[in-house]
């Protein structure tokens, strides 16, 4: 499948769920060979943990991790892939103007698939996540 088709699918996965439309991550790209997707989430005041500094709340970090992990599975599976489990390890405060996520497809299975997500803010690794997604349907 051409890269443009994967990018189109990524846009679909970011636009289809109402929650993703509210979250509004920007599609950065797809690396079909590496089976990765890249998203970026510009900071908004309602995403903040801190009352005066741009510091992303952990719930927002987890939400972006879930979106990126799901997208990494769904675009290569060709269909939505509901989340079964998601583990997020927070490594550092996410202080900055954008939160970047790289979803990495680790295993595309007939019923269960796995993806890892690396999350960076201001060029600093702030969290890592691992998700399991249903590809049964």
Outline the structure in words.
By secondary structure, the chain is an alpha+beta fold. The protein has one domain (3-134): Thiol Ester Dehydrase, Chain A, CATH 3.10.129.10. The protein is 28% helix and 38% strand. It is built from three helices and six strands; from the N terminus they run ααββαββββ. It has helices at residues 3-15, 18-23, 58-77, and strands at residues 26-31, 36-42, 83-90, 98-107, 112-121, 124-134. A six-stranded antiparallel beta sheet has the order 1-2-4-5-6-3. A hairpin with a 4-residue loop joins β1 (26-31) and β2 (36-42). The protein is globular and about 45 Å long.
CATH class: Alpha Beta
By oligomeric state, this entry counts as single chain
Following the backbone from N to C, one meets helices and strands in this order, namely HHEEHEEEE
Shape: globular
Number of strands: 6
